[in-house]
């Protein structure tokens, strides 16, 4: 079933936006977000299974025509507080199919119960386990907080002398947890999903006692030199548009091969409507082309 952008926007604003609030306990945010995504259509030709990698739970999406030795580690968004491999499975499975890559979606530990660096430690565990499982070519992808987590993981790999990802895909990246970008104000009324109030709650929950400008918490303030090719996508009505703009500028200035695309009239994480919204399918296809490791 296909829907228009108007219908998708209405679903986001009436179903998801009220849930993402500091006044809703994180445990309920997680349950309600998962429930809201339960009916998302799954692409044909992709098998999805739940399992564990070195103690980290998650899901794996295996396309029928997968390429040998090629994997994507996809990191879900949710402000480090909510989100899961369940509610992002349609997006991850669509990306797996388009890229012909086995795609792992870890359920990393979330704040406030598990603040930084728990999510990053789980991510590193999964990346290393995927490599040991026979995937020499591993790319990273993520949406929102997951995009920031992907960048933080790539920097840890680089700084530790480990093989870096073959590429990074950042969807609506949240890379400045100080919330300094102008779009937090200028796009507040346009974005049907996110509010500055909820993002500030999430930032404090994740960082806890660590400075919000720490480069692994806010990669916008990091040294990005030596990172693999980066593709960034954002909607022009995304509250985090400034984060995407500034990340693209900073990465290019650091010598990172960067591809950045803005999608007119679309909101934060519209790619979650893969299989339902034509613009989301177009965006996923573009990400897959970037991450195809032939």
Question: What features would you describe in this structure?
Answer:
By secondary structure, this protein is of the alpha/beta class. The chain has a single domain, classed as Rossmann fold. The chain has helices spanning 5-16, 26-36, 89-99, 118-132, 145-159, 183-186, 196-207, 241-253, 278-291; strands at residues 46-53, 56-63, 70-75, 102-106, 137-143, 168-171, 230-235, 258-263. Helix 8 links the parallel strand 7 (230-235) and strand 8. The relative contact order is 0.16. The mean pLDDT is 96.
**How many beta-strand elements?**
8
Mean pLDDT score, rounded? Answer: 96
Overall tally of domains = 1
CATH superfamily placement = Alpha/Beta hydrolase fold, catalytic domain
The CATH architecture category equals 3-Layer(aba) Sandwich
**CATH class placement:** Alpha Beta
Q: Which blocks of ≥5 consecutive residues have pLDDT under 50? A: none
Fill in the CATH topology. Rossmann fold
Largest sheet: 8 strands, mixed
Strands of the largest sheet, in order across it? 1-2-4-3-5-6-7-8
Strand/helix succession: HHEEEHEHEHEHHEHEH
Task: Write down the overall geometry.
Answer: globular
Give the termini distance in whole angstroms.
32 Å
Radius of gyration: 17 Å
The number of helical elements comes to 9
Share of helix, binned: 25-40%
The secondary-structure class comes to alpha/beta
Question: Percent of residues in beta strands?
Answer: 15-25%
């Amino acid at each position: 079933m296909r829907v228009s952008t108007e219908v998708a926007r209405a679903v986001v604003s009436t179903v998801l936006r009220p849930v993402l609030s500091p006044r809703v306990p994180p445990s309920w945010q997680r349950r309600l977000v998962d429930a809201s995504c339960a009916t998302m259509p799954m692409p044909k030709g992709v098998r999805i299974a739940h399992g564990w990698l070195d103690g980290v739970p998650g899901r794996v999406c295996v396309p029928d025509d997968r390429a040998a030795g090629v994997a994507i580690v996809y990191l879900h968004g949710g402000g480090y507080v909510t989100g899961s491999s369940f509610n992002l499975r349609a997006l991850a499975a669509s990306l797996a199919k388009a890229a012909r890559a086995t795609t792992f979606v870890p359920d990393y530990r979330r704040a406030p119960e598990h603040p930084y660096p728990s999510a990053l430690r789980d991510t590193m565990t999964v990346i290393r386990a995927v490599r040991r499982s026979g995937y020499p070519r591993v790319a990273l992808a993520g949406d929102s907080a997951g995009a920031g987590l992907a960048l933080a993981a790539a920097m840890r790999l680089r700084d530790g002398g480990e093989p870096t990802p073959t590429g990074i895909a950042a969807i609506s990246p949240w890379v400045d947890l100080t919330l300094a970008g102008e779009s937090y104000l200028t796009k507040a009324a346009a974005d049907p999903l996110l509010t500055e109030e909820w993002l500030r709650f999430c930032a404090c929950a994740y960082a806890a006692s660590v400075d919000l400008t720490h480069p692994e918490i806010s990669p916008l303030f990091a040294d990005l030199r030596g990172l693999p090719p980066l593709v960034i996508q954002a909607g022009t009505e995304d509250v985090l548009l400034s984060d995407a703009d500034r990340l693209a500028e900073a990465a290019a200035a650091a010598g990172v091969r960067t591809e950045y695309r803005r999608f007119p009239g679309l909101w934060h994480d519209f790619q979650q409507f893969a299989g339902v919204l034509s613009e989301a399918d177009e965006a996923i296809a573009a990400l897959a082309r970037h991450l195809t490791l032939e």
